[in-house]
Amino acid sequence: MRIIADDHIHYVRDYFSSIADLELIPGRTMTADKVKDADVLFVRSITRVNHDLLKNSRVKFVGSVTTGTDHLDLPWLKKQGIAVFATKGFNAPPVADYVVGVVAAMQQRYGLLISQKKAAVIGVGRVGNLAAERLRLLGFDVTLCDPFRAAAEPAFHATALNNLQGMDLITVHVPLTYGGDHPTFQFLKDDFFERQHKDCVFINASRGAVVDTEVLLRAAKHTHLCLDVFEHEPLVNRALLTQASIATPHIAGYSVQSKLRGMDMLYREMIQLKLVPDAPAPLTMPEQTLTFAGENHTWAEVVLGV
Fold it and tell me: What is the pTM for the complete model shown?
């Protein structure tokens, strides 16, 4: 079996070099000519997987180390009989931890989110659920917004997007979608930000294009922007960067544990499909021991120390 994988996908050698003909290439340089001889393709969100890439290939399985699937032409892949698996939820714990880290930083740097405790979580899937749990542990009154879960689950208590107002913290965890009943492409508008409290903290660790850059630049006059993602990545609007209270380069889910978890999920899926022999995973989840000097530390100091 021949596997071609993005060379930024970690641990792929540990899992597959001994059981497949493995070639690693940069994800941004994947072309139809380079992947035509592959049986299996491993990608990240930067690689568009569609007719143009796979039309002349023998690829039968695409594994994407991502939570979102907006880079995959799922209808076309299904029509071609190409199996697809995205590692949904693999980075949920570190993204939720990122939200906690932002709260800690905003408390220490700006004295915010200490007594102001109204938070909204938009998109309550794997990541949003964990983020909401952590915010409740920090004493926030959490409002949930997820129209899909609200429609499917009678017991799910949600607030419509148009009714979200007076928030001190908003964190967004949605996929990027362009159609359907609730598309998320540029779905947060000026009026949404104007309805929130002054000095509201806005976290986006989902996809940059869910908010238009110009909308964010206007919101920055009264909102603290904490951005892990940007519209038009890998290009970053310099004016927006200077206006952000916190800016990180799409790394919220980029922990050692999530990288290993993603590869392990792909490996187990391939075992299920009988593409590789059923065998124990070659690696186990790493653990760390942390030591803090002294006894008088706030929770925020501990989190930022980690």
Answer: 0.83
